[in-house]
Amino acid sequence: VQVLREAQDLGADSATTGLMLARLFVGLGDSEQATLQLELAARALHEADRLPEAVTAWRELVRLQPGRCDYARECAELMVWSGDKESAVEVLRSALNVHRGAGHPASDELLLTMYELLAKLDPAEVMAHEWLAKAYERRRDRDGATAQLRLSAAAQEKSGDDPNLARTLERILELDPHQVDVLDWLAKVRLRLKQDGLAGLLWTKAADA
Fold it and tell me: What is the pLDDT along the chain (209 residues), one digit of tens a residue?
């Protein structure tokens, strides 16, 4: 460890020495120092446009600190830049799942960017759309919330999840009760759920809107 630190001080490649130090610290059980060295290495590799190596370093960092949403976002964004959208989705999902449990603290702004990226990469990710809809509602962005709920509804329609689809469409109507296409859509869902009476009421509302 001392030899590598001295090499760093003398101007040796910070990415290479950082990775070597990180792996030594992992072996020594010092996750704090390993994290520090991995982050330095990952950023140095990124700045040097050594993207495959940078992605590998970020992956190691995310595995070492699975609850750090900031690391996961950096890793996912670089994966997208490198053309690996599938891996980016996996990294985002994993970090957000850990965060919902007992992860590292993350700001609302950071979470917003992560969920927006996840929703963009996987339009069928209902969980992301629903989180974003609630976030936009808190910001009094009715149009933004409605757009996310519509995306969620489209995914639920495609998967045949009629009970949750009905709940999503009801939420859209809570935001704007005069959306005729949503009234008609919900009526058809109620009909599929064998709720003919509710379907009839919805079609009446649609005709009066």
Answer: 464 565 555 555 677 777 888 888 888 888 898 998 899 889 989 998 999 999 999 999 999 998 899 999 999 999 999 999 999 999 999 999 988 876 567 788 999 999 999 999 999 999 999 999 999 999 999 999 999 999 999 999 999 999 999 999 999 999 999 999 999 999 999 999 999 999 999 999 999 87
Q: Which amino acid is at 153?
A: A
Residue 206's CB is within 10 A of a number of other CB atoms, namely: 18
Using DSSP's 3-state secondary structure scheme, residue 49 falls into: coil
Contacts with 198 (C-beta within 8 Å, 6 or more apart), sequence order: 187, 190
CA dihedral 146, 151, 152, 157 (to 10 degrees): 120
Rounded Cα distance, 1 and 7, in Å? 10
What three-state secondary structure class fits 68?
coil
- Whole-model pTM over 0.70: yes
Tokens 């992992």 identify what position? Answer: 26
Give burial (CB, 10 Å; 0-12/13-18/19+) of 28. Answer: exposed
Alpha carbons 155 and 32: distance in angstroms, whole number:
41
CA distance 40 to 33: 11
Q: Are 64 and 26 in contact (CB under 8 A)?
A: yes
Angle, vertex CA 207, rays to CA 203 and CA 208, nearest 5: 120
